[in-house]
């Protein structure tokens, strides 16, 4: 009986998808609670195509940098952050960041620097502006996608400036867009359990709304697979959808699967998310976020084989070449830290899709048509 009810509910969602009707909270819950993974994938792929999606799958040639791992917030999910006193603490100067990035550019023609870091209380706002200005001067044709909304909020505390003033100064120095981190799960209950020292989610929205108003596009994320309920996941996605209706500035959504190693949750017995949950998150995100064009299957987090499957569950982007990744690897990721373009192309083609290298703003850089070699 429960299965029939579940199927009837899914049938009603199929109808809505075919009519391009918006799904609601209850629909989201039905999808989250369904164990019919293949049907979820089919539904999500159908929704993607009905909204204009094609066989193209995007990736960007990028370089990951972390300016500091020193952080004042003790988020319980984080294995990356340290205090200033710990032996492995680092805070790079703007000159060191430039030297590193320029040396890396000799090795790969990345078009984007993706940079996030801890909320370091021992630097001032000028430090962040300097990094952006120096990187922009050294590599003017590279898009700087830097600093989560939490870091922007931290800069308002360091400087006494408003979020708008901080973003204006960073944009003038060369900032191109914001990554989507810091969102975690918006529900107050979850926030209190996993990140009690972090700012209220209202600030995350305020930062993104302000950025969009200034013409700075952003990304959005959700960190799932810890203490959150399905209701809280759906609520998170619908809050993002509402924001996107208002401002339209989100380029992509990236579901981030919780990695427990070296966190307090590991000691409490938490394990990695099952692949079925990762695929479900991709599918439900695609179905609910009808106004965000791109959903990323982040290979760093799920590995390339599952990312390939995710391309049939509503994802249309595999993020990028990355080169160095520290946040997920500190928490137990066993994926590579870099993929060459050739490998991303092979993986996308093997999934039956057309690889397209994009820039940060989803302009095409290069495409690979034709049959798999
Ligand atoms: O906010 C931290 C997450 C985020 C863990 O915008 C963890 O394209 C899982 O912003 N397990 C920072 N997740 C990374 C980030 C990001 C990553 C990829 C793509 C984009 C984008 C942005 O990483 C944090 C937090 O949500 N995180 N620790 C962990 N143990």
Question: In the CATH hierarchy, what is the architecture at level 2?
Answer: Alpha-Beta Barrel
Domains, number = 1
CATH superfamily: Aldolase class I
Tell me about the biggest sheet?
A: 4 strands, mixed
Into which percent range does the helicity of residues fall?
40-55%
List unreliable stretches of 5+ residues.
Answer: none
Report the portion of residues in β strands: 5-15%
Given the structure, what is the number of helices?
16
Question: Summarize this, please?
Answer:
By secondary structure, this protein is α/β, with parallel strands linked by helices. 46% of the residues lie in helices and 13% in strands.
Describe this structure in words.
With 373 residues, the chain is of the alpha/beta class. It has one domain: TIM Barrel (Alpha-Beta Barrel). The chain is 46% helix and 13% strand. The protein has 16 helices and 11 strands. The protein has helices spanning 2-18, 25-33, 37-50, 94-107, 125-138, 149-159, 163-173, 188-194, 201-213, 230-247, 264-267, 275-288, 299-302, 304-310, 327-330, 341-350, and strands at residues 56-60, 62-65, 112-115, 143-146, 175-177, 218-224, 250-257, 294-295, 317-320, 354-358, 364-367. The strands form 3 sheets. A 4-stranded mixed β-sheet has the order 9-1-10-11, with helices on one face. A 4-stranded parallel β-sheet has the order 2-3-4-5. The protein has a 3-stranded parallel β-sheet with strand order 6-7-8. Helix 5 links the parallel strand 3 (112-115) and strand 4 (143-146). The longest helix has 18 residues, at 230-247. The chain is globular. The protein starts with a helix and ends in a 6-residue tail after the last strand. The mean pLDDT is 95. Residues 77-79, 116, 148, 179-182, 184, 219, 221, 223, 254, 256, 258-259, 263, 298, 327-328, 331 line the site of ligand V47.
């Amino acid at each position: 009986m429960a299965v029939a009810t579940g199927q009837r509910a899914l049938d009603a969602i199929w109808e809505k998808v075919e009519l391009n009707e918006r799904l609601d909270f209850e629909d989201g819950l039905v999808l989250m609670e369904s164990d019919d993974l293949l049907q979820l994938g089919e539904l999500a792929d159908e929704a993607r195509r009905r909204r204009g999606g094609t066989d193209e799958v995007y990736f960007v040639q990028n370089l990951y940098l972390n300016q500091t791992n020193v952080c004042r917030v003790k988020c319980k999910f984080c294995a990356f952050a340290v205090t200033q006193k710990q032996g492995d603490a680092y805070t790079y100067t703007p000159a060191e960041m430039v030297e590193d990035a320029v040396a890396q550019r000799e090795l790969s023609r990345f078009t984007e620097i993706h940079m996030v870091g801890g909320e370091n209380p021992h630097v001032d706002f000028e430090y962040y502006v300097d990094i952006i200005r120096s990187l922009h001067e050294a590599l003017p044709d590279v898009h700087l996608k830097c600093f989560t909304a939490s870091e922007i909020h931290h800069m308002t505390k360091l400087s006494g400036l408003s979020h708008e003033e901080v973003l204006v100064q960073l944009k003038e120095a060369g900032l191109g867009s914001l990554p989507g981190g810091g969102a975690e799960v918006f529900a107050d209950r979850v926030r209190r359990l996993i990140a009690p020292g972090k700012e209220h989610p209202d600030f995350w929205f305020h930062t993104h709304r302000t950025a969009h108003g200034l013409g700075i596009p952003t990304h959005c994320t959700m960190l799932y697979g810890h203490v959150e309920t399905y209701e809280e996941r759906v609520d998170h996605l619908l809050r993002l959808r509402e924001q996107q209706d208002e401002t339209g500035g989100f380029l992509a959504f990236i579901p981030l699967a919780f990695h427990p190693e070296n966190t307090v949750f590991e000691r409490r017995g938490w394990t990695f998310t099952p692949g079925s949950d990762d695929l479900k998150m991709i599918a439900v995100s695609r179905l609910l976020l009808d106004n965000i064009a791109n959903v990323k299957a982040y290979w760093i987090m799920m590995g390339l084989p599952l990312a390939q499957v995710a391309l049939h569950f509503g994802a249309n982007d595999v993020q990028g070449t990355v080169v160095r990744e520290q946040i997920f690897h500190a928490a137990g990721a066993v994926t590579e830290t870099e993929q060459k373009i050739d490998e991303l192309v092979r993986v996308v083609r093997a999934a039956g899709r057309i690889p397209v290298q994009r820039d940060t703003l989803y302009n095409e850089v290069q495409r690979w048509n034709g049959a798999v070699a």
